[in-house]
Amino acid sequence: MTPLGPHLAAFLREHLPRDRRASPYTCEAYATCFRFLVVFVAQRLRTRPAALAVEHIDAELVLAFLQHLEVERGNSARSRNARLAAINAFFRFLQYRLPDCLDQAGRIHAIPMKKTDESLVTHLTRVEMKALLNAPDPRTRWGTRDRAMLHLAFAAGLRVSELVGLRLEKVDRRNWASIHVMGKGRRERVLPLWKETANALKAWIAIRPSSQEPEVFLNSCGRAMARSGFAHILAKHVRSAGASQPSLVEKRVSPHVLRHTCAMHTLQATHDVRKVSLWLGHATLQSTEVYLRADPTGKLEALAAMEPPPLSPGRFKEPDKLLAMLSDVQSAQKYAERGRR
């Protein structure tokens, strides 16, 4: 039996960050997946997690684990697929280190991904976004910080990891005209800033507490802002903005909704999905097509360009109620006679 621990540690601590150059957030997500998996398998086999072997994790146990995620933990199909992708990546890594597990890995790779619903993206209207940007109090230090974060998340269309990971040296502090973003898949992009966004960012950096942390945005303890911290800040200001804009209360506004909002507004302004893709840092246009399905503008233009088929004129004539009643009685009588026969 081959101990699982050393190979899992090599995968998470060496292969992902060094060979795959995965981001810290990817490594964290993979580690979370395997923590759930190891605990589940250890409970099933009634043993200690440290005593697990690679051979214990077969296709049958992986399928049971995926069902456990959906049924008992309440994970969505997307989360289930993400966990399966992490397990597949680990067994691809093992194929070169442990040739004896090739058959085991092949059976796990054969587990299909579950189809998911392609629902429309949630985004905010201009009125809702304006109310949210005005929610923080700029007369306080943390209100100034919050306004800068909300402005930057919306105007630049940043992922939450890109926002909280933005470093001071990546901000053009001579002209305050742009920021340099390291995005998903280590794809870099330079994004220009609106004057209002630049002013909000400049106001925060001017009063930012001195800290050894290189990130732009700090929490109340003087450390780098976490993703969960920004989610908490956003939820607080959504509740506050909901007093003046009640439609915000009915929506589930996550940090990624601000990115969706930027994409939808950019698409409506430019009518060019390629510009939206470049702005968001997507690897392919396929990732950006989801905004075309949510934007009715192009569909309305296509509808206006089409000529509807001619319909013959006619008027609806309401049936006479007395005749309708007599017809019903006649039909009931026919059914009764058939029953007697």
Structure commentary:
With 341 residues, the protein is mainly α. It folds into two domains: 4-109; 126-300, Intergrase catalytic core (hpI Integrase, Chain A), CATH 1.10.443. 57% of the residues lie in helices and 3% in strands. The protein contains 15 helices and two strands. The chain has helices at 4-19, 24-45, 59-71, 77-97, 102-109, 126-133, 141-155, 160-164, 195-207, 227-241, 255-270, 273-280, 289-294, 297-305, 321-340, and strands at 178-182, 188-192. The protein has a two-stranded antiparallel sheet. The chain is extended and about 90 Å long. The termini are far apart. The model has no long low-confidence stretch (mean pLDDT 90).
Brief rundown of the structure:
The chain has 15 helices and two strands. With 341 residues, the protein is mainly alpha-helical.
